[in-house]
Amino acid sequence: MLTTFAVLIAIIFILDITAIVLGFVYRDKIPGLIRSFLNSELEKSKAGYSKTMDAIESLFLCCGVDGPSDYGTNYTQNCEAYDQGCDAKIQDTIVRYSIILFVIALGIAIFTLATIVSAACVVSGIKSYAAV
After folding, report:
1. Which CATH number is associated with domain 2-131?
2. Cα separation, 93 vs 90, whole angstroms
3. What do you get for the CA distance between the two ends of the chain, in Å?
4. What is the pLDDT of residues 82-124, one digit of tens each?
5. What residue ranges do the domains of the chain occupy?
6. How many CB atoms lie within 10 A of CB 47?
């Protein structure tokens, strides 16, 4: 049972390390992916198919991808209050919190590794006790 626990925690550890490495390797592609996603959602929002852009604008207190001009004369209520584009706001947020996210992910990885080692020590102790 404890061995199964250690294996499951090891899988979580591997996933955590993978997320850290992928985040580091693809960090230069993230701004383009965000901009592409925002442009796609803006087009859906203009056509009336998506509420995602409204949610993003409400959450980040922004308007459109680059600003109210993205909507032309049919801008949303958010654009009456906010003139900064969502792309810039989201990029600023990512830059502001990227170190914190990295430290948290690294902390989780270290804690997970300590859990694996502890479980392995307990399993070893149980086996040596059973042998006596």
Report:
1. 1.10.1450.10
2. 5
3. 21
4. 889 999 999 999 989 988 988 998 999 999 999 999 988 898 8
5. 2-131
6. 8
